[in-house]
Amino acid sequence: MANPNLLGISNVVGVTTNIVIGTSDVGTGFQTVLSNASSSGKVLKLVSILAANKTTGNATIDVNLNMAAAGAGTSTALVDGVIVPGRAVQIVIDKNTPIYVMENRSIVAAANTSTDITISYEDIS
After folding, report:
1. Is pLDDT at 71 greater than 70 in this prediction?
2. Mean pLDDT, the chain, whole residue set
3. Chain center to CA of 55
4. pTM of the predicted model, to two decimals?
5. Arithmetic mean of pLDDT, 22-41
6. Nearest to 81 by CA among 100, 109, 56
7. Using CA of residue 15, residue 16, residue 22, residue 25, what is the dihedral sign?
8. What is the torsional sign of CA 76, 47, 120, 116?
């Protein structure tokens, strides 16, 4: 099934989800943080992505977010090397720059230390 026509949608559901991404080299070891399956009949509209640095002290972390084929494939950068100060939260994407995650696409993330990622999105079908 193709992505839904936004003029003919019947459901828009708001969703917020959290995931802890593990330690890996920034740019490698990406983990899926949001995925839209092939033939889902949905498009996911990202409203916000937050990255939380829970390290003690003033240690900063670097976060990368990419768009990829769902579950695998070549990815392209959405943000590259966002710095999150110690004990802070960084707004990575907000409602002023919406991104649509089409069918068979995923958002993947990597960071140089364990990082909490919070994603708010609209599930549109």
Report:
1. no
2. 87
3. 21
4. 0.87
5. 77
6. 109
7. positive
8. positive
